[in-house]
Amino acid sequence: MRADLRVIEPWVEPNTQVLDLGCGDGTLLAYLQEKKKVLGYGLEIDAKQITSCIQKGVNVVEQDLDKKGLRNFADKQFDTVIMTQALQAIRRPDSMLDEMMRLGRQGIVTFPNFGYWRCRHYLLWHGKMPMSKSLPHTWYNTPNIHLCTFRDFEVLCRKKNIKILNRTVVDANFEQSRFALMWPNLFAEFAVYRIAR
Amino acid sequence: MSSSSVEKSPIDNSVGVIKPKTIHFDQELALVCGKAISQYDLIYETYGELNADHSNAVLICHALSGDHHAAGYYSEDDSKAGWWDSCIGPGKPVDTNNFFVVSLNNLGGCGGSTGPNSVNPETGKLYGPDFPIVTVKDWVESQARLADKLGIETWAAVVGGSLGGMQALTWSLSYPDRVKHAVVIASTPKLTAQNIAFNEISRKAITSDPEFHAGHYYRHNTVPTKGLMLARMIGHITYLSDEAMGEKFGRDLKTAEFNFGYDVEFEVESYLNYQGKRFSKTFDANTYLLMTRVLDYFDPAAEFEGSLERALKHSTCGYCVVSFSSDWRFSPERSEQLVSAMVKAGKPVSYAEIDSPYGHDAFLIPTERYMSIFTAYMSRIAQEVNANAS
């Protein structure tokens, strides 16, 4: 089981409507459909991933978030809007957060922490853009065009009057470590945020 | 010669040799237009086997110029397969190893079902222009009666492209308990002004042919072939994309150089003329007029103050919607409109926009991604059918 599913599942109420932005192969939605009987929709642009969703019986809509946005969905149409590991890859993460708050009663966001000590160390030591298992791309050819730290994200939420209801910080294996809990912006590699307005 | 060089012939890779059947209905069918048809025939074909609990039936709905012959061949040496043979058959998206497939010629058609070129039992003469205007809703009514006769209470899926997709959508609205899935390909929730405009040119081409005789050309022992040919040529352009035509014909000439005249010189002219001529010999002009009107009138949201979302309220089926990037007749935006309404109405739906250069005709061409989406969705339905049957 994908580690982030365990963190997300308790935050999703049974029999509710869920929108997963950048749903990949549909693993999360298939899991929530089975465990929580949600009515889920995933948005995706990758052809192979879309086919995988259909094979799993997950509703998937081909839609490019950067090009088409989310204007075709109605205010508060969903109970939960999820975006896992994609916030850093879209053109305007700030407007995306607004849209997530418009469409859903709550949002769940995960992203890699650019303030993680290994990233800081890499930059300090090598003087080059950090690369790691979770950030494997070169700076010139990467989908991650808006990397940020936990603090960056939280400042943005405050600015936008978005409340952080929960934050679970984890290491690379999505395990919670003592250090990560104490100094998340330095020692946690990922965070799963539950947000609402 | 090695045995591995033996290739399967197209017929072995299809549902094989098929014989159409006809059912007569003598219960009056009241139409949306206010008129009624007292009795009628529907011609249809079936492929595959109906399972014990009759839960594996799939209805195929044809588009403007289609008919009941969707798959297979009429004889061992028939060179031409049914119009959707690429998608229906063993191992194909609509897999006849899993499904019992029904394909009919719609009411008003000219493929063997009652239509303008059939005898009106009340007058003893051909209907001609007096054949009442039918709508997609009327077709679904007539198809429901066919389903009754075949012992099919619920379709595992209703599937169609273009005008066929409109029937699949309408099934899910008219008979929500009788459809488990609707597959709506290269279709639209309604025609645009431009779509209607093209239809009007096609109709004008036919009705202004001197051989049309106000639709009574049968009585004059003639056919408005010139008008029908023009109509088809115009239609054909809207089925292709600029890119597809460019790729197929470019500016290629039939002869080595320009002849500086008005005869056919470019390959594209020759192709359109050929297609138009061939079509005008086999298709009925009154049916063509009727089919374009069926398209024009289609607008299931109209009864709900234009709200598709409300029109979809009572539907209970799963939807698969597919569009093609270069389709400018029923563009991806039209499908997206439908999909957004489905999501807003809280209906299960999956949507894919297939990157294809073939324009509207792409729904008939078995390109790789199209086939994999179509197959994935239909396999999922087959799994459901099997899970519930066992």
Strand segment tally of chain A: 7
Range of helix content of chain B: 25-40%
Which quaternary structure do these chains form? Answer: heterodimer
CATH superfamily of chain A: Vaccinia Virus protein VP39
- The dominant shape of chain A is globular
Order of helices and strands of chain A: HEHEHEHEHEHHEHHE
CATH class of the largest domain in chain B: Alpha Beta
The counted number of beta strands of chain B is: 14
Which residues of chain A sit in consecutive blocks of at least 5 with pLDDT less than 50? Answer: none
Q: How are the strands ordered across the major sheet of chain B?
A: 1-4-8-5-11-12-13-14
| Secondary structure category of chain A | alpha/beta
* Name of the CATH first level of chain A: Alpha Beta
Average pLDDT figure of chain B: 96
Number of helices of chain A: 9
Order of strands across the biggest sheet of chain A? 3-2-1-4-5-7-6
The CATH architecture of the largest domain in chain B: 3-Layer(aba) Sandwich
Percent in helix of chain A: 25-40%
Can you tag this structure with a few keywords?
heterodimer, A: 197 residues, alpha/beta, Rossmann fold, seven-stranded mixed beta sheet, 7 strands, B: 390 residues, Rna Polymerase Sigma Factor, Chain: A, two-stranded antiparallel ribbon, 10 helices, 14 strands, globular, disordered N terminus
Give an overview of the whole structure:
The complex is a heterodimer of chains A (197) and B (390). Chain A is built from nine helices and seven strands, in the order H-E-H-E-H-E-H-E-H-E-H-H-E-H-H-E. Chain A has 197 residues and is an alpha/beta fold. The model of chain A has no long low-confidence stretch (mean pLDDT 93). Chain B has 390 residues and is an alpha/beta fold. Chain B folds into two domains: 7-190 and 299-389, 3-Layer(aba) Sandwich (Rossmann fold); 196-293, Rna Polymerase Sigma Factor, Chain: A, CATH 1.10.1740.110. Chain B is built from ten helices and 14 strands. In chain B, strands 1-4-8-5-11-12-13-14 form an eight-stranded mixed β-sheet, with helices on both faces. In chain B, strand 9 and strand 10 form a beta hairpin. Classes of the chains: A alpha/beta (197), B alpha/beta (390).
